[in-house]
Amino acid sequence: LQAALTEGEHLRRTMSDIIAMYPVVNEGILNAWEASALIYLGGEENLKMARDKLTLTIGGLHDLLRKDPQDHGMQDIELWRSRAVLAFAHRIRGYLFWVLGLLQDSAKDYRQAAALWRRVNLKIEMATTLKDMGFVLSEAGESVTGRNLVKDALALQRELGPRSPVGLSLNTLAKIDIHEGAYESAIVFSEKALVLFRALGDQRGIGLALLALAEAKRRASGTEKVPAPENKVELLRAGRDHAQEALEVFQNIGEKMRQIEALIECGCACRDWVHVRSVAPSFRDDVERLAQEAAEMLARAAEMATDSMIYKKVDALVNLAWLRFYAAQD
Question: What interhelical angle do 76-99 and 23-41 show, nearest 10?
């Protein structure tokens, strides 16, 4: 990720004459790619820089496209490219707003991106945008619309051929199932995605599928369909292991947001394990060690989130409070 930022600086130094030919568009694509890397790196300063770059790019391209193309000598191909870069910038800002917990703003940017992708006829980007918008809408409570958008994206991706985007849409369907409490279906979708990503060697995809699988198994352990304590523990152990593997993946990639999610998921799996053993003790499990592991993971997540991702920080701290309640029952 840091290498991407370094490459952006290198291109600005070595290709300044080319960038100057169409500065708004060429600077815009560099800004958007750099913003994407900054979002993955996370942290308050990086997220602010990403937002500033995207705001500048989107504003500049909207101003450019409002003018008559003949006024600034723009050929059809450059007009097409300007719209494509603007769509990409809107898509990246949609993701940024999701990271910041601003779901309505995120959905608005995704809608603008989708309209532009439709106009320039870039189907693979349209599919990615529909997938992301569907997930955001499902988180905002519009599950039916969200699921339909992701299904549309999946159909389009299968038609176009690239397999990693198919895996991402399968995994997004798993996440929507988790929101709706359909944990068995979520496990099926995320396992399919994981098999596909492992076959492709797509590390980020592997990490995302592991996170979804971890959450689905953890939440499934708390349902009436899994009444036996040993079966609950089996699911929680698997969920914790998936989350730990995901954490390693995102540490290697350097994606901070997903590291926080993996830490929270590890902590929650251990926390729920403590809860099971507070009701059904077993010599097989060291409850004190599990509680300590959960507390360490959740505290690390809260510390990493800081105020730039306040909703993740709150999530970690609330789960830490539940851990202390369960541990007190033991």
Answer: 20
